[in-house]
Amino acid sequence: MGVYQIVQIVWAVSAGLLTVLVLLHSPKGDGLGGIGGQAQLFASAKSAEATLNRVTWILSLTFISLTVVLSAGWLNN
């Protein structure tokens, strides 16, 4: 297994994990719950949200950089 295949596997895994993490994010808008003041009832923990944001940013940068590397052909096939 060469470097090219390993980078492709890491790229595919980062794409899958990035999809899952984006779906795990809580919606930023209050929706209809904001009308009656009920939006504060279901607020998530700030530390969990900050960690989720940090991991999402790291995975998105990994995915984008590997996409550039793979599409530019900088690695030998």
Protein described:
This protein has one domain. α1 (3-24) packs antiparallel against α2 (46-72). Helix content is 64%, strand content 0%. It contains two helices and no strands. The termini are close together. 4% of the residues are buried. With 77 residues, the protein is mainly alpha-helical.
Question: Which word captures the global form?
Answer: elongated
The helix content is 55-70%
Measured on Cα atoms, how large is the radius of gyration?
18 Å
Report the strand count. Answer: 0
What characteristics describe this protein?
mainly alpha, 0% strand, 77 residues
Concise summary:
Helices cover 64% and strands 0% of the residues.
Q: Secondary structure elements and their pairing?
A:
Blueprint lengths: L2 H22 L21 H27 L5
Helix pairs in contact: 1-2
